[in-house]
Amino acid sequence: MQLGSIVSSLKAPAAETLQELSRFSALWNQDPEEQVRAFLQSEPSLTEFSSQICFYSTLEEQISELPALRLVGPILFDSEQLKLSLAQECRLWKRAFGAALNRQASAGMSDMLSFMDGLTKRLQRPITDLEDVRGAMAALREVREAEVRMDASIGPVEESFALLQKHELLFSDGNAERVDGLAYGWKNLSALVLQNQNTLVKIGPGMKADLLAAAQSFQGCVQRFCADYDRRGPGVDGVDPAEANERLQSFQAEFDQLWRKYTTYSGGEELFGLTINEYPELQRIRRELSLLSKLYSLHTAVTGSVAGYYDILWADLNIEKINAELQEFQNRIRKLPKALKEWQAFKDLKKSIDDFTETCPLLHLMANKAMLRRHWTRLSDLTSHSFQVESESFCLRNIMEAPLLKHKEDVEDVCIGAMKERDIEAKLKDVVAEWSAQTLSFATFRTRGELLLRGAETAEKISMMEDSLMVLTSLLSNRYNAPFKPSIQLWVQKLSNTSEIIEKWLSVQNLWIYLEAVFVGGDIAKQLPQISGSGWTTVRYGRGSSRTSFRGRGPRSYGRMDGAYPVSGRRQAPIPHPNP
């Protein structure tokens, strides 16, 4: 009880001690990296960085001033380790903000040093001609434009590294040492600018005179080039595309040299305040060369691709891939400027792509597996061109040399006919295969053995014959049946005769069943003893088999059998095949 009273009495002093330490709770409740990222999103200034770093430096001092021992009633608290941990956390926070400031200041310093190094190299070049004058003037102009920005940026960068130095935030990237050369480099660049300005003033009059003489000579060069271009340039009518492409390369190289001179001289005229000479013909040729370059670059790509198509073996032809590439070429030619569409080279290129694209459906039909030798022979007769399809070296070139588009409709008809003939052949083979394996089944009649055709099965086969005859009749009326017409007619005759024979067979069979009962038993058998005793004979159905049947005045067999019968025991006989 007394111990509980003592503990209760210590709660208030202990709470006061903890409350005093709660002002440092941000050190362990928050993550420094996350806080720095949130801080950078507000694009802080150097003053705000300084405020943050100073805050944690002050906090570190406050932690160091905390007493090492604390007495709470009879209990003595040792806070030395707590102070060390809090001070370490403070340094981590301060270093996180210092690293962010170091990265920001280093990036700005690197940009400025790179800018100064580039301009220094350009301004150190000796000035010997107008091109050098233009380069020096451009560099001087850039220095003038950047002067205010550099003066406003060098100070904050130096202050940033000074702030890091003050709070002993050192980094091993070497930027703290480089900052000393920032102001010195800018000072040297300013001196170099003044030197170049004096040089330009000194050599200006001589350069101006040289410029006027060079411009006068340049005008003559431009006139000769324009006249030569109009007389034998790549855009002259009637020039072969391959030769036009060569001329384009030649004139483009010559034009590039003239254009560099034009840029130099016009820049010099602007520098010295002279009237800038315009060369409208040179500008026109520049536009034309640009358009022709687009046209003939596409022409070269198309020509190369088509030449590659021609060398593809017929057996390896991939029409879908060629179609996709041609579609891409068509899309590119549609995107060419409208000014090109009146040029003959454009029309020829478009026609080449369109003709090949139009030929692709024909190639797709001709590559069908249904195309046989007789079809290629017909194509040869139509186009007066030989197609050696069986050759291993037969390639697309051998196809494209034929006038396919001239006989487009006839070629399509032959290819479509080949596919139709393949369908006809497949259906005919199905009919032949179906009826080459059919057999007739016999049923036992009383004690006389297997004498009778089974009615249900035979009726089903007659129905199947009618279906097959309908298929054959449709094939017979198809205009593409010429290669198979004799076979179709033969099987129409076979199935028609067989169906008729079986129907008569069943009729005779039914009549025989009725008469057998009449003549074998009863009063008629007694009254006609001679007939009943001698009216039976044996009819042979096949090799080594015989059946007993009634001998009438008609023929002794029900139909002539073709060939050997299928092995089916003595219970089946093949469907009779009539004589053709």
Helix fraction, binned, reads 55-70%
Taking the sheet with the most strands, its summary is: 3 strands, antiparallel
Overall form: flat
Domains, number? 3
* SS element count, helices: 19
Protein described:
The protein has helices at residues 2-21, 26-29, 32-40, 46-64, 80-123, 130-166, 175-178, 180-232, 241-271, 280-310, 319-334, 344-366, 373-383, 396-400, 408-435, 455-476, 485-520, 522-527, 529-534; strands spanning 69-72, 75-78, 439-444, 450-453, 536-542, 545-550, 572-574. It is mainly alpha-helical and 580 residues long. Strand 3 and strand 4 (450-453) form a beta hairpin. The protein has three domains: 1-203; 225-415; 436-574, Up-down Bundle (Butyryl-CoA Dehydrogenase, subunit A, domain 3), CATH 1.20.140. Helix 4 (46-64) runs antiparallel to helix 5 (80-123), helix 6 runs antiparallel to helix 8 (180-232) and helix 11 runs antiparallel to helix 12. 70% of the residues lie in helices and 6% in strands.
